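Narrative summary of target 7.
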Amino acid sequence: MKIPSLKIGDLTIRIPIVQGGMGVSVSKASLASAVSLTGGLGVIASVGLGEEMDTSIPYMQRSRQALSSEIRKVKRQGLPVGVNVMVALTNFGDMVKTCADEGVDVLFAGAGLPLRLPEFAGDSPMKLVPIISSGRAADVICRSWSKKYSRFPDAIVVEGPMAGGHLGFKLQDLLDGTASDLDTLVRETLVVTERYEQQAGRKIPVIAAGGVYTGADLARFLNMGASGVQMGTRFVATHECDVSDEYKQSYIDAKEEDVAVILSPVGLPARVIKTPFVEKSLGEKQKFKCFYKCLITCDADKANYCIALALLDSSRGHLDTGFPMCGENVTRIDKIVSVEELIQELTTEAEPLLS
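Modeled conformation, tokenized:
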């Protein structure tokens, strides 16, 4: 069976693979363009982009300028582009409006419930896709958007506990292994979306994320009823990914004991590769000055370190002052490949397994 396209409203993505948005400066225009060119959907992460610019420019202004620049690099090639905007950002609304102004095709919003997302998006035709970690959250968003804005999500990404970066689960549940697995979460979310599709008058595609690694995983979720998958960790290990070679090498070198779930200054658990900085930052408060005020949930006076600086440093290859975020499957990566090779591998493996 030929692999089906991912259809989000009137937007068709030829291969049902979404590259997850990864900040800070992990997924920018280079990676997003390569994924969209190969038939998937490339996604730029908005958080932290402005820190590559002159930091004397006000944070809000440089964030807008940097995001616009990355979006235009993809759009000028005539390719579809998605952008991930964290709900926890202090400039969340401004970033959403920037995406609308720049003609972004799909906006993904996680790290909090994006209950006001339609308000900031206005009458833009871009697709609005919440990222959630439970069927209950999907239900809350659908009910809220329907009541306040007379609309429904264009699709929903449901992210399981094996994902990388900030996670929408309780820290203890992740450490104990008691968080619901992705298969269960996808089934729960499908029940919710099916209930609202009649009211919406259209399909609400569900996209599975967090632990998707092989073509067999892709086929399993498509057979389950999902419309596509989102993958982050595997796309870091590609030639086109925007991070440094040192960052990518840390993925290849990672052993099971090198991966940890920590509590980020954002207030959410995060899965990372342990570096000397991880141990140091957990044990004592680092000296830093907050240049950003980028996250609503971060209290710089109480935080042990600046998460923005740590992630920015690691993306540049300075792993002594930061750490890479990763998914649980990072230990399975053993080489760097091109985006085209990766997608070809995934689709070739998936097609014979589709029911």
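The chain has 13 helices and 13 strands.
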